[in-house]
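A quick aside before the break. I want you to see a complete sequence-to-structure record at least once, exactly as it would be stored in a machine-readable document. Don't worry about memorizing anything.
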Amino acid sequence: MSKFKFSVGPWNVHAGADSYGPATRSEISLEEKFKRFAEIGFDAVQFHDDDAVPNINDLTEEEIKAEARRVKGLLDKYGLKAEFVAPRLWMDPHTIDGGFMSSRKEDREFALWRSFRSIDIARELGCDLIVLWLAREGTLCAESKSPVWATHQLVEAINRMLEYDKTIRVCIEPKPNEPIDRSICGTMGHVMAVSAATIDPARVGGNLESAHAILAGLDPAHEIGFAMAFNKLFTVHLNDQNGIKYDQDKTFGVENLRQAFNQVRVLLENGYGSHGEYVGLDVKAMRTTTDADCYKHLENSLAIFKALEAKAERFDYAFRDKCVENRDLEALEMYTMKLLMGIDQ
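That is the input. The structure line, written in tokens, reads:
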């Protein structure tokens, strides 16, 4: 029995289209996804604002809230909670040069409008967490905007959100590149600095995604641990990544099993989840996956996480301490590999 609760987003079950090819699977309704998520063993759903409220730009504030209440009814029907809502700013014509950091004031105001509506949706869904994936927040042309000015714009936008709702929490999901090549706030260290500059740092934290840390050349477990040391890890997006390439969102643990083990271990060691946090997945099915198997990557990620959790529970800390005392890190390394390979110690 896992000690953790798990969440997943509707976008993790998709039709398979990418930048280089069309859809390969059928679309699935939101309710059908909720039903299968509950059957697989998830506890909560992650949302973009327009996952919960399609065509959000065309609706009034009251219409947005009413549609969110309808989705809350579907969550209740399948015994699911909402974990967070994230404004999907990167897909809109207003945000071709960024949202909060756009060079045009009307675009920055649009980004805040969507953020405020995301807060409204979160409240109707019964959650208090807003996630900011800063997809286009940076520069396409190095000379086009000052990174100092851009960082100040991000802090100001978060302050406006904190003022809009006095109990909402804001969570930044850092990524060093793609789709923007000069990102602002690309690592968990950047998140900590931005948090400290806001009007209420206790309500601003981070969402560490495994693949994003790997893209920055960092160890995801260390990024997780760094955030936890400051009580700033509000949620996680676990997945995997084959090197410093494009963002792959692979099934958790399939590329870097030892690295995945240490992500599970640092969460377990430090009581992650004791304040209601979820272990979130952000994994995508391969384009070759059939309609019949379109949830298999989620099932596999959960199975791998739980298997690694069981191994982390068996990790021999007394032996670890002895190895460290004797400076015999080769023995510790081999112990860890035998544990992962299922070889008797």
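Two observations worth writing down. Residues 105-125 form the longest helix (21 residues). The beta strands are 6-8, 44-48, 81-86, 129-133, 138-139, 169-173, 182-183, 204-209, 233-238, 279-281. We'll return to this after the break.
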